[in-house]
Amino acid sequence: xxxxxxxxxxxxAARLEPIERAPVWFMRQAGRYLPEYRAVRAKHxxxxxxxxxxxxxEVTIQPVDLVGVDAAIIFxxxxxxxxxxxxxxxxxxxxxxxRFPEPIRLYKQIKExxxxxxxxxxxxxxxxxxxxxxxxxxxxxxxxxxxxPWTLFAYMVxxxxxxxxxxxxxxxxxxxxxxxLLLRKLSDVVAQYLIAQIEAGADIVQIFDTWAGVLAPDxxxxxxxxxxAEIVRLVKEHTQNRAPIIVFCKGANHSLGELAATGCxxxxxxxxxxxxxxxxxxxxxxxxxxxxxxxxxxxxxxxIAEKVxxxxxxxxxxxxxxxxxxxxxxxxxxxxxxxxxxxAAKTAYDKVRAPRSV
Length: 358
Hints:
Helix 9 crosses helix 10, helix 10 crosses helix 11 and helix 11 runs parallel beside helix 12 (217-239). Strand 6 (287-289), helix 15 and strand 7 (321-322) form a beta-alpha-beta unit. A seven-stranded parallel beta sheet has the order 1-2-3-4-5-6-7. The protein is 47% helix and 8% strand. It has 16 helices and seven strands. The chain has a single domain (9-289), classed as TIM Barrel. It has helices at residues 9-14, 35-41, 46-51, 53-66, 80-84, 107-112, 118-121, 123-136, 149-158, 166-174, 176-200, 217-239, 256-260, 275-282, 301-315, 335-347, and strands at residues 72-73, 142-147, 204-209, 245-249, 266-268, 287-289, 321-322. The protein is an alpha/beta fold. The radius of gyration is 19 Å and the shape is globular.
């Protein structure tokens, strides 16, 4: 029997239900900005933490206890998906980030990728979700996630992070059929992975397309949006729509209307668009998440509160709004400033009184 949520603000916001205030959480909220996380990390490698449900659960819950966020997001990494498909993943923190020593460059490599059941290859993630749910005991919702096919493709073909992902984009433009074959494989695995997370207990899931912004609008539609829409359709169909879906495509403000039309419940925003403009483009049928510049957390409590209040004023009402940054929280942020953001977000709409008929 599932435990009744004591704080379901995030789920109600995602479903456009009336809420007393907008919920708040951070992307990458379980991470290096917290001394308590660094204490665990000092004893274990990053991948050991990801693959050990007890450790993943511990750091997943830390921000709930220490920062006061309205949701936990399972501690993992988007690149566990290509690893589960047969790629060798190397993570050397402080040495250039994760990388694949043997990137995908040949049709033969694409064909040989494993497209099996993520429930088996990624059982440590679903086990971590089950354990985290048990330990949260209904305090806040738990968020599951996956990288979007294009972002995973970019890492798999490039082999590591890049400013322009020119090798990955070269495959899109010169080997179109190979590119779509890989993207189709990825979308099938990502859909099954998110379904498995929901079945394990995730209350809501997010699809991260971190590198959407390196694609031109037409290319984004062909190589990213099409596959995200298919994932949303499959996940909703197989889970009877019981978990809302957030789609966050950093740098894709040119396609916000199309993103909303994928069938997702929430569109995540980066910080390069005014939230009122985004709302006007998208309409009132999809919730919005974001969109503060993460660098604001390097300032002062008063500046943080001012920026948070501005977002609330532009949004005008809490219904359909989730406070978050426009990307992940960075390791150098003072935890006190993260807590200041959360405090400001929880009271921002007290200062905004513009009632609307629902």
